[in-house]
């Protein structure tokens, strides 16, 4: 099916930011995508309009009961000027898994991707050029029925906004310090940990602030029951290099299935690097560290792609990883994925989708 969306162009285009000073998620482009849902018409009236505030009834379900989800992916411009997305159908699938968990109506995957393409095409001059930059794409859905009662909303809005971004961490690829959280938990099996929804983040802010006060940028979450097994990191998945094995926690129902995570596993397999998805406990990490076998640790996610971890604090014990330097596996994964995304490396995994 060929989707077309009416476009209302802005009469007041904004000044584009200097790509050198770009941070993450502070600037937005000239347009946004909006689509409505009601039980009679399903998803309908997809349109592109000037970026700006939206009107919402104060009784909208999302404001009271948090029926909301979001996604994140990026668009890049290749040296030849081709605009491309990285694995957008994975985001479409994950959207529908999240929607199912939150009783939000699913969206046709082709429609989801077509909406992203149409908006990125219109605002493609906003794709920044420069190392570590990209156009971040934020699709999201929220319940907008005015109704104070706990049941699924009958109406929704699907929107997409775009943000030219620089490196997620101001430190770029410099290693970050991570706090192993042993009081608060992010998610438990049976909850919404594997859904990409705002509620998970609201619940994580407290622990994040405490970690910040102690001088740590990020949190490593442990499982919600035994507080023993590694789950994930803030908004990213966790990878370790133990001896010659690359390890990440297996998807257990409370971990968000990252697309970057999936890509790193696939790349390791392709390159003949030993990689496992399995349970990994904090005790195993400590033992590996003491035995000199914890070679690398890094976070994976769309925002930073790969972000090395140089220090881990668990119950007062500090572990300094790889001399606080980025390690070879993290560097290779970053270079390969960013290279494919930006078209500087041939897409031998068939991951990019052109915006035409
Ligand atoms: C989005 C997200 C990730 C990373 O997923 P990617 O698809 O790689 O960006 C990891 N954990 C959480 C909690 C997330 O919200």
TrEMBL record:
Cofactor: pyridoxal 5'-phosphate
Coiled coil: none
Reactions performed catalytically: L-leucine + 2-oxoglutarate = 4-methyl-2-oxopentanoate + L-glutamate; L-isoleucine + 2-oxoglutarate = (S)-3-methyl-2-oxopentanoate + L-glutamate; L-valine + 2-oxoglutarate = 3-methyl-2-oxobutanoate + L-glutamate
Pathway annotation: Amino-acid biosynthesis; L-leucine biosynthesis; L-leucine from 3-methyl-2-oxobutanoate: step 4/4; Amino-acid biosynthesis; L-isoleucine biosynthesis; L-isoleucine from 2-oxobutanoate: step 4/4; Amino-acid biosynthesis; L-valine biosynthesis; L-valine from pyruvate: step 4/4
Superkingdom of source: Bacteria
A Pfam family it matches: Aminotran_4
Keyword check for Repeat: no
Descriptive protein name: Branched-chain-amino-acid aminotransferase
Native organism: Emergencia timonensis
């Amino acid at each position: 099916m060929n989707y077309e969306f009416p476009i209302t162009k802005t009469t007041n285009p904004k000044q584009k930011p200097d790509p050198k000073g770009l941070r993450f998620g502070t600037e937005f482009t000239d347009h946004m995508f909006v689509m409505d849902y009601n039980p009679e018409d399903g998803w309908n009236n997809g349109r592109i309009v000037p970026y700006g505030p939206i009107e919402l009834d104060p009784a909208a379900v999302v404001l009271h009961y948090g029926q909301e989800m979001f996604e994140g992916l990026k668009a890049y411009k290749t040296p030849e000027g081709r605009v491309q997305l990285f694995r957008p159908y994975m985001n479409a699938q994950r959207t529908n898994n999240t929607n199912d968990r939150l009783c939000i109506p699913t969206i046709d995957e082709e429609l989801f991707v077509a909406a992203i393409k149409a908006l990125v095409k219109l605002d493609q001059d906003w794709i920044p050029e420069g190392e570590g930059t990209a156009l971040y794409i934020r699709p999201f859905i929220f319940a907008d029925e005015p109704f104070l009662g706990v049941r699924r909303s009958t109406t929704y809005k699907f929107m997409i906004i775009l943000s030219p971004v620089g490196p997620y961490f101001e430190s770029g690829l410099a290693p970050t310090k991570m706090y192993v959280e042993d009081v608060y938990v992010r998610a438990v099996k049976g909850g919404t940990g594997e859904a990409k929804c705002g509620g998970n983040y609201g619940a994580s802010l407290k622990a994040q602030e405490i970690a910040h006060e102690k001088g740590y940028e990020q949190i490593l979450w442990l499982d919600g029951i035994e507080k023993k097994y590694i789950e994930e990191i803030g908004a990213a998945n966790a990878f370790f290099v133990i001896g010659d094995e690359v390890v990440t926690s297996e998807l257990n129902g409370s971990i968000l299935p990252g697309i970057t995570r999936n890509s790193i596993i696939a790349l390791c397999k392709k390159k003949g690097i030993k990689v496992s998805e399995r349970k990994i406990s904090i005790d195993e990490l400590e033992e590996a560290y003491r035995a000199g076998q914890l070679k690398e640790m890094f976070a994976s996610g769309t925002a930073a792609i790969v972000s090395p971890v140089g220090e881990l604090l668990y119950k007062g014990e500090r572990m300094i990883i790889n001399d606080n330097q980025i390690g070879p596996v993290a560097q290779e994964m970053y270079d390969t994925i960013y290279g494919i995304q930006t078209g500087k490396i041939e897409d031998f995994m068939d991951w990019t989708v052109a915006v035409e």
